[in-house]
């Protein structure tokens, strides 16, 4: 008993100490990088009050989360050392529910394992064991669950390629719905494989005689808070690879996403109606956007991202069919794009409403990218031409800083903004783009209110 009390006291002090020392070191830290951004804006004659300070809140959030994770680490470290006892972990293995993992149907076993895992209390780990291949029809993993679950995907989950298996819901293969505090981690040779070939062949983008229909997203996280998604290997999705929809608080890291360059609409990571999303250290090469951020998304940070092939990092498209769209507080910091059709792009349809604002693209390297920097307020992804309309999704407060490399096309910078709603407060700072083969690139700038700082090449 005495011993237990002592352990609790020790834990308490260590935790307090760790929080404290972290807090103090925060105070001594140099100002966060966003500081310069504001200084720069101010010195460029901007009114800082006009800019909602999403950076500051993000950074604060970040440190807060860091403190929590620091505390969790202390606890788990103490548990490892045996100073405090770990609560016993319940492992739910799909094989115990009849999954064979021999590349035959295992859908029911996964459903049963999910029921068991989601309804159990305490520490629960749902395990997809290493070295196996599980073939799965669409599955909805629904919460809320009784515990904070961990799912370990060390074996492979492979999608059924029988299209009739998807007739109840053609939009999703694996969906995690309303599950808070979920940790999903991959590892070893485990893969999530959408087996998308059949869907690509039946896409109207590949076979023009076919009607346009949606295909399933391989992995969807819906209506969930505080998710961690780590080290997953995801390939050949039927359409989008990973989608975060209506989520708040996501840390995704170490994702490897791969599909052929020719596969239609196979976005890597798609973010919609979600907030506080961090994506770090991920490598994405597909047939469509590397990361796409669409309406209702706020406070999205992507750091240390490698893209290519594919269509690059996109905000939008926004405002299709005269819809109202809002995206704000997007930071892409540290990215390398190679052989993509766009670098960093904002695309909006004519006729929409709303805005895309407070966007920072920095420390980005382009390697043979067709449109390295592009804002397209006249986006039109349909067969018949889009008619001219006066309303538009506004684009404002966009910073491009420290961007270099090569353009595969002559036009390295393109601002094709709306006549009626020109792009506002666009800043280019230390941007240097050459056309591949050392030729001189150029910039096309229509209806844009632009500020340039440092070296900027090409210029409007
Ligand atoms: C689950 O995680 C949340 C947030 O980290 C925590 O507040 C809560 O106590 C946890 N619940 C359980 C049952 O462990
Ligand atoms: C396109 O689809 C049509 C209708 O299903 C089919 O007959 C045709 O063979 C397909 N073309 C190719 C190239 O797959
Ligand atoms: C650059 O990209 C273009 C068009 O995407 C391609 O044709 C060309 O082979 C690429 N060049 C290099 C050196 O990769
Ligand atoms: C771009 O900048 C980075 C960092 O300053 C540098 O390492 C890299 O060589 C540059 N790339 C090109 C193509 O200039």
From TrEMBL:
The entry assigns this protein to a family as follows: Belongs to the glycosyl hydrolase 28 family.
MF terms from GO for this chain are: polygalacturonase activity
Q: According to the lineage, what is the superkingdom?
A: Eukaryota
Q: Where in the cell is it found?
A: Secreted, Cell wall
Q: Where is the signal peptide?
A: 1-25
Taxonomic lineage = Eukaryota, Viridiplantae, Streptophyta, Embryophyta, Tracheophyta
Protein name (database record): endo-polygalacturonase
The protein's annotated catalytic reaction(s) are: (1,4-alpha-D-galacturonosyl)n+m + H2O = (1,4-alpha-D-galacturonosyl)n + (1,4-alpha-D-galacturonosyl)m
């Amino acid at each position: 008993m005495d011993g237990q009390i002592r352990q609790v006291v020790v834990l308490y002090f260590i935790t307090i100490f760790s929080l404290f020392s972290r807090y103090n070191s925060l105070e001594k830290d140099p100002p966060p990088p966003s500081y310069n951004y504001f200084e720069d804006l101010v010195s460029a004659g901007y009114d800082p009050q006009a800019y909602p300070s999403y950076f500051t809140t993000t950074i604060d959030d970040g440190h807060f989360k860091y403190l929590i994770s620091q505390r969790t680490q202390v606890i788990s470290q103490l548990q490892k050392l045996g100073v405090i006892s770990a609560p016993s972990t319940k492992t739910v293995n799909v094989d115990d529910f009849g999954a064979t993992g021999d590349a035959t149907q295992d859908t029911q076993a996964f459903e049963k394992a999910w029921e068991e895992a989601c309804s159990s209390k305490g520490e629960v780990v749902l395990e997809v064991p290493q070295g196996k291949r599980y073939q799965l029809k669409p599955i909805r993993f629904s919460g809320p669950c009784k515990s904070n679950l961990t799912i370990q995907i060390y074996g492979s989950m492979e999608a059924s390629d029988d299209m009739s298996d998807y007739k109840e819901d053609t939009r999703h293969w694996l969906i995690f719905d309303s599950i808070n505090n979920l940790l999903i981690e991959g590892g070893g040779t485990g893969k999530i494989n959408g087996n998308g070939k059949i869907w690509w062949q039946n896409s109207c983008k590949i076979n023009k005689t076919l009607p346009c229909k949606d295909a399933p997203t391989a992995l969807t996280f819906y209506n969930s808070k505080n998710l961690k998604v780590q080290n997953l290997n995801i390939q050949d999705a039927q359409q989008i690879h990973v989608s975060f929809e209506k989520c708040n608080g996501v840390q995704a890291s170490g994702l490897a996403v791969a599909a052929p360059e020719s596969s239609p609409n196979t976005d890597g990571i798609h973010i919609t109606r979600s907030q506080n999303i961090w994506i770090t250290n991920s490598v994405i090469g597909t047939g469509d956007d590397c990361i796409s951020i669409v309406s209702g998304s706020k406070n999205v940070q992507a750091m240390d991202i490698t893209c290519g092939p594919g269509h690059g990092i996109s905000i939008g498209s926004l405002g299709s069919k005269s819809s109202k769209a809002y995206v704000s507080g997007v930071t892409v910091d540290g990215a390398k794009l190679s052989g993509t059709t766009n670098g960093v792009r904002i695309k909006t349809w004519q006729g929409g409403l709303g805005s895309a604002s407070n966007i920072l693209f920095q420390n980005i390297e382009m390697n043979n990218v067709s449109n390295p920097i592009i804002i397209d307020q006249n986006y039109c992804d349909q067969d018949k031409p889009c008619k001219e309309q006066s309303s538009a999704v506004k684009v404002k407060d966009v910073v491009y800083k420290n961007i270099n490399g090569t353009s595969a096309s002559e036009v390295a910078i393109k601002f094709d903004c709306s006549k009626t709603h020109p792009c506002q407060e666009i800043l280019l700072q230390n941007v240097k783009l050459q056309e591949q083969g050392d030729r001189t690139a150029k910039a096309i700038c229509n209806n844009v209110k632009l500020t340039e700082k440092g070296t900027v090449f090409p210029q409007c």
